[in-house]
Input
Amino acid sequence: MEKPLKYILAEHKLTLKKAFGQNFLTDGELLSEIVEKAGITPDDTVLEIGVGAGALTRQLAKCAKRVIGYEIDTRLKPVLDDTLFGLNNVGIVFKDVMKEKISDIEKSLGGEYKIVANLPYYITTPIVMNFLENAVNLTSMSIMVQEEVAARFSAAPASSDYGAITVAINLRGGAKTVLKVPREKFTPVPNVDSAVVKIDIEKNKFAGADLVAVRDIVRAGFSSRRKMLVNNLINGLKLTRVQAETALTKAGVPLTSRGETLSALDYVKLSESVKAVKNG
Ligand code: SAM
Output
C-alpha cells in the first residue's frame, strides 16, 4: 500500500514550492488512466518530466520497460528514494530539463521513447516547442496541461484558439485531448482545470520539407494577428510586396488571408514558394 502524500511530505518535512509548479497527483485511478491513455506498453521507454513525489513514475514503471525522470528540486531526492524504492527500471536525473540539450537526453534514452508528464505549467510551451523542433526519436507526448492550452493544441485553423503552437504540432503530427482532469485532483488545488493531451508524432509527415524554413514562415505569419499575412511576410521575411504576393499566389493562398487561417500543409507549400521567389 502506497503512503498518502501528506504523510510522505510530513515525514520529510517538505513544503511544496509554487515556483516549481508543484501541484501533485495522488488519485491512483487517475494515474493509471493517464498511463493507459498514453498507450504505454512493456516495450516502451518513457521520459517523465517533473517526477515530483513519484506517484505517476510508479504507475509508469509498472507498465513500461524503463522510465527516466527529470526533477529540478533536489529536496525531493529522499522522498523519491522512499516512494520509488524497489523499482529497478527507473532512473531519476536531478536537473533542470530546460537546460538539457534534447540530443543529450535522447542519447541517454537510447532509441524511441514516449513522454508522459504532469508538466509545471510555466514550462509547457517551451518544453513542447523544444521537443517538437529537436526530437528525433520521440513517438508521442502525453502531457497534463491547462484546459485552455489543450484547446489551443488541437484547434482548427481560423478558430480563436489556433496559433503558432498548433501549427508546430501539426507539422510533426497531431494532438487530441484524451482526458479532462478537474482541479480538485491536484494537491494543492490550482485555480484552473486541466486536461491530458496526447501528441502523436508521425514519422514521415512532410518528409523532405525544410521544417526550419517553414517555422520561420509560421513565426512571421503569426507575428501580428491583426495584420494580413502578406504584410507579415513583408515585415518578417524582408520580402518585397511583389515577392510576397507572388509567393502566396503560387501556394494557392488568397492575398487577403491572415496567418491563422492557414493549415500546416499551407505553410509547407508557402515555404516552398517563398524559397522559389527568393531564388528568382
Ligand atoms: N509528476 C508529479 C505528479 O504528477 O504528482 C509532479 C508534477 S508537478 C505538476 C511538476 C514537477 O516538475 C514538480 O515536481 C517540479 O519540481 C518539477 N519541475 C519544475 N520545473 C522543472 C524543470 N525545469 N525541470 C525538471 N523538473 C521540473
